[in-house]
Amino acid sequence: MTTIGQALASAREEAGCSVQRLHETTRISGTVIRAMERDDFAACGGDFYARGHLRTICRTLGVDAGPLLARFDAEYAEAPAQPRSLAEVSAEGGAAPARAPGAVAGFEADPGDEDATGDEAETGERNEGEDPGEPEGEAATPPGGWLRWAVAAVAIAIAAAVLVWANLGEPEEEAAQVSVRSAGDPAPPDEPRPVQDWEAEQRRAELQAAEAERRAAEAEGDGEVTLHVEVRESTWASVYDGDGDALFAGILDEGESRDWTAPGRLRLHLGDAGSVRLRVNGEDLGVPGDSGEVARLTFDARDPGRG
């Protein structure tokens, strides 16, 4: 069965898009793209970023990301995907729900606000029918309780801003800065977190992604792949290097032998897998498939036996 990486590589090649061109379009590192096409998602820096890269690449190549994301969650993810947040929906063009009347300075309206206001209105109506001679101390609370809630919410917001500023030790304008997220970026988690926690986690993720990219680049430069093909019966074939550039495309004639070498990785497409015999970096892999079977094979310098 075709892996996620093979599906991405096949979609990119069918679109006539090289790794460099896909990098320039998506701004995803070419090293990370190549690692994903080898089903090495550690280079993405975590499940959160791997899902975002999958969505971006699929959208660029015109491929439905749903099946690939489902397979990623089932086969690779360390934790299940979180539900898409309100911030992601808004960034993609959806309208955020209207804020409750009592919401002030980023706080949600207390569920009891509406009831309190309604109670006060009802109390006010009862006051109009009460005997004006009743003692003042027994009269119901006059309307306008919402103002007290608003003042309290503003006070809480000011106190929270002071605490954040004190904890961060940064200028007030930086503490109050709002992060703007574009539609192409991965969605933030559903649960809101303190600013310092989010920034620290983001820095850790960036460091992890950079380290993974460095390791992937080192691994990719570990050696070359040499493919030797012995043709038993004529067949159509094409050979691509790790950057997606075509090294050969045409007919291999019966009795012919061909060799190709490239750094890091080679990809071979065969119209008849049973018509050839393969050797990679000196290792005899035999006949890669049955007669008449179409095969798409990838050979890595670190694991030449994997096709």
From TrEMBL:
Where is this chain compositionally biased, Acidic residues type?
110-122
**Any idea where the Cytoskeleton protein RodZ-like C-terminal domain is?**
229-298
Where is there biased composition of kind Low complexity?
91-106
The GO terms describing molecular function are: DNA binding
Compositionally biased residues, Basic and acidic residues: 190-200
What Pfam families does this protein's entry cite?
HTH_25, RodZ_C
Q: Where, if anywhere, are coiled coils annotated?
A: none
What segment(s) does the record annotate as region Disordered? 85-144, 176-200
Q: What domain of life does the native source organism fall in?
A: Bacteria
InterPro entries membership? Bact_Cytoskel_RodZ (IPR050400), Lambda_DNA-bd_dom_sf (IPR010982), RodZ-like_C (IPR025194)
What PANTHER family does the record point to?
Answer: CYTOSKELETON PROTEIN RODZ, PTHR34475
Output this protein's name.
Helix-turn-helix protein
What species is this protein from? Answer: Actinorugispora endophytica
